[in-house]
Amino acid sequence: MQIDKNVENDGVIFMSIKGDDKSDSTETGASKAAVSDSASASAGGSGDVTILAIESSCDETAAAVVRNGREVLSNIISSQIALHTIYGGVVPEIASRKHVEKINGCIRAALSEAGVTLEDIDVVAVTYGPGLVGALLVGVSAAKAISFAQNKPLIGVHHIEGHISANFIENKDLEPPFVCLVVSGGHSHLVVVKDYGEYEIIGQTRDDAAGEAFDKVARAIGLGYPGGPKIDAAAKEGNPDAFTFPQAKISDAEYDFSFSGLKSAVLNIINQAKMQGEELNQADVAASFQKAVVEVLVGHAIKACREYGYDKLAIAGGVASNTALRTLMEKECAANGIKFYRPSPVLCTDNAAMIGAAAYYEYKKGVRFDLDMNAVPNLPLGDRERRFHAGKA
Ligand code: KG4
Ligand code: ZN
């Protein structure tokens, strides 16, 4: 995976992500890298569905052109992380304003890198929830405007369905049914992907999402924002057995997660050290905390595969880029005869290629949205067609 990065005057990082044959999929043992190089992309043959996908649910403005759900012609991400770092987290108003500034440039770049124009686009897809309402509205408004002006079908995509669908991009052989562990900044879900766009949630967090726990603990031990990648990096230098942190089990819902007790245990250790005037080893705390989270995530996911009888397991969301999680999951999948799928790290965090992948299967099912589509900040996973805006063609 080749990433061209450019830091703009306002601190926003502009990225263009291109596939290459040496991508992470070789390491995963997946059949073939499916992210095409823009040079090899030619504008649509008959029956091809070319989707312009837009994502703006949090602090990344992103646009991508995706053909037939699995071939990424372009993937542009404008990341605001550096702007929010000084506040220690995402400031919604700043995020919305930056999305407004960046969105047209991202869409233009996505079209140009894919070598297509708006006329070549068959469908406009956009994340319409869940996420920050002001941020979502920017993408939704842009997608509606293009759909109206070009008279192209409009499809709203659930952000988490997008994360799950990121697995289809580099793994052409992956088809439902399979189990997917979705771990992002706002969600920790264990789902059975029964079919394209059909999800059964078998476990979810009772309190903090996994990514949220990473972010809060990173702040507490002085690593700052964004916490996940910083803990991941610090943990490489630390001893994962330096502290034994609790791994919550919920007796009446064995696949649910709870990370708030773990977070409190870390805070207690920090406070104790402060009171005793001792210096805590940041890397040891990071490694021990990460181990506790990762063991719970992997344990639940493997158990679900075994008990529900699935031999394919995928991971998705920002936390799925965590090195320790990928390593332990790979080991446990191999030990249990389960085929393990994971997107390259840059496709785990927010991007629009995953939205284009999810939208393709919605399009094939006949889902179409009207121009009254609105942002839905707390959009639930599954059964959304009946409840939110979308009709059948
Ligand atoms: O999926 P994502 O990009 O945005 C949401 O939909 O929330 O996930 C962001 C979350 C953040 O909490 C971030 O700290 C976490 O994913 N994250 C990681 C890593 N990279 C990102 N957590 C652990 N290890 C990482 N390497
Ligand atoms: Zn996300």
CATH level-four homologous superfamily name of the largest domain = ATPase, nucleotide binding domain
Strands, count: 14
Structural class: alpha/beta
Helix content class: 40-55%
Main sheet characteristics: 7 strands, mixed
Series of secondary-structure elements, N-terminal to C-terminal: EEHEEEHHEHEHEEEHHHHEHEHHEHE
Write down the Rg: 20 Å
Uncertain runs? 21-45
Task: Give the neighbour order of strands across the main sheet.
Answer: 1-2-5-4-3-6-7
Amino- and carboxy-terminal Cα gap: 37 Å
Estimate what percentage of residues fall within beta strands: 15-25%
Number of helices: 13
Small-molecule binders:
5'-O-[(R)-(carboxyoxy)(hydroxy)phosphoryl]adenosine, zinc ion
* Tally of distinct domains: 2
- CATH C-level label of the largest domain: Alpha Beta
Shape: globular
Oligomer: single chain
CATH architecture of the largest domain: 2-Layer Sandwich
| Mean pLDDT across residues | 91
CATH topology of the largest domain: Nucleotidyltransferase, domain 5
Describe the structure.
The protein is of the alpha/beta class. The chain has two domains: 2-171 and 348-392, ATPase, nucleotide binding domain (Nucleotidyltransferase, domain 5), CATH 3.30.420; 178-343, ATPase, nucleotide binding domain (Nucleotidyltransferase, domain 5), CATH 3.30.420. 41% of the residues lie in helices and 20% in strands. It contains 13 helices and 14 strands. It has helices at 24-28, 81-85, 92-114, 133-150, 159-170, 210-220, 227-235, 260-275, 282-308, 323-335, 345-348, 353-365, 384-387; strands at residues 2-7, 13-18, 50-55, 60-67, 71-79, 123-129, 154-158, 178-183, 188-195, 198-204, 312-316, 339-341, 367-368, 391-392. The strands form three sheets. The protein has a seven-stranded mixed β-sheet, with helices on both faces. The longest helix has 27 residues, at 282-308. The two termini are 37 Å apart. The site of 5'-O-[(R)-(carboxyoxy)(hydroxy)phosphoryl]adenosine has 20 residues, from helix 6 and helix 7.
